[in-house]
From TrEMBL:
InterPro entries: LabA, NYN
Database matches in CDD domains: PIN_LabA
Species assigned in the record: Roseovarius aquimarinus
Annotated protein name in UniProt: NYN domain-containing protein
Membrane spanning residue stretches: none
Gene3D superfamilies: 5'-nuclease
A Pfam cross-reference name: NYN
Domain NYN intervals: 7-165
Amino acid sequence: MFYKDERLALFIDGSNLYAAGKALGFDIDYKLLRTEFMRRGKLLRAFYYTALLENDEYSPIRPLVDWLNYNGFTMVTKPAKEYTDSQGRRKVKGNMDIELTVDAMELAPRVDHIVLFSGDGDFRPLVESLQRQGVRVSVVSTIRSQPPMISDDLRRQADNFIELEELRDVIGRPPREHQNERSDAYETQD
């Protein structure tokens, strides 16, 4: 479904891709992801969208954001809004759909193929509009999680659906909590 000479752009809905990978039991290696899609076509841009908590001194996503920024990704961030719901639970809201949509519409005349890493059904009208402009759209998400992470409408609208689970060997790594289990292996010797 990819042609070597086509101009590609990646649009990554960070929280959606993270949730899909977690549901499948693996983390995304973004260096491998970028390399994989550079192999598939002429990668013009790789966008990553995420909201950041503005009042936290340390955000667990900050190292990833910094790494992506220095390694060829165009970072699009905005402050997340924190609020308390009617049951008194702390909630965070940080939807990046509008930013992703505007960027995709602006870039559409300069690309042949957009790869959208999200299963959010709100993107179906965007995909339809991009297709009317002559852009092919592949959507990366999963139907293998319970519940599936992709909207049926979005999957049907896309030119190509790429099952995230099938990319595991190419772009995945084990979740972080499993990587540090053997910390006792580094005992000091006297």
